[in-house]
Amino acid sequence: GAGVSQTPSNKVTEKGKYVELRCDPISGHTALYWYRQSLGQGPEFLIYFQGTGAADDSGLPNDRFFAVRPEGSVSTLKIQRTERGDSAVYLCASSSGTGRNEQFFGPGTRLTVL
Amino acid sequence: GQNIDQPTEMTATEGAIVQINCTYQTSGFNGLFWYQQHAGEAPTFLSYNVLDGLEEKGRFSSFLSRSKGYSYLLLKELQMKDSASYLCAFYNTDKLIFGTGTRLQVFP
To answer: What is the pLDDT of residues B48-73, one digit of tens each?
Structure first.
């Protein structure tokens, strides 16, 4: 089947605007993760869903960032009042469970805040 | 606290063997992953170690020593397509904690 997909692939916005980034996980995967990757760095954990609930949101940098997964499948990462420092690639990953289950990554959304 | 460290860059020649080291410190450990990431692409899974020892998978092998907080990824018979970043990550409770990645350049 299809892998993890993310839309849009690129998003350019102005400082202060609101953006939504979408992730479609692999069908049947219960666990969904959001990471942020800056240039030359490894992915940085933001939030993890098990089903519909956010099991761990300790990586969200501040209250401008919020994510939902209302039906336990598609997830949306929402960023309010964007800042230039939010510019990065936002990666989504899904897995069939936690622990040793491999996380499959999507291609990412490159966010640029001007 | 949590910390993970790997070299920033490495170079090697086509056909050679290269070892990429990774050291980590964490209070909670549930396994160590290696991912490959080509420029502009998503990370792809290479290996997973939860017990001490060597895991071999084709040209790639990964080693783990939990007592030393140490892992390495061994790439044999290097090919030009192996030029990529290699990310070391440990699994802590419910999330992966990544290192900065090692950018490997393979030359002919």
So the answer is: 999 999 999 999 999 999 999 999 99
Task: Please report how many Cα atoms fall inside a 13 Å half-sphere around the Cα of residue A72, on the Cβ side.
Answer: 8
> Which residues of chain A are within 8 Å of residue B98 when distances are taken between CB atoms?
35, 42-44
- Across the A:B interface, residue pairs with CB atoms under 8 Å apart total 56
Instruction: Give yes or no for residue A1 having a pLDDT over 80.
Output: no
Residues of B in contact with A45 (CB under 8 A): 95-97
Residues in chain B: 108
Q: How confident is the model at residue B28 (pLDDT cuts 50, 70, 90)?
A: confident
Exposed/middle/buried for residue B108 (C-beta within 10 Å: 0-12, 13-18, 19+): exposed
Tokens of B4: 């993970």
Strand duo B44-49 + B53-57: pairing = unpaired
* Cross-strand partners of A79: A19, A65
Beta carbons of B93 and B1 less than 8 angstroms apart: no
Handedness of CA A60, A48, B23, B99 (dihedral sign): negative
Q: Which residues of B touch A35 (CB under 8 A)?
A: 96, 98
Query: Considering only CA atoms, which of B107, B105, B63 is closest in space to residue B83?
Result: B105
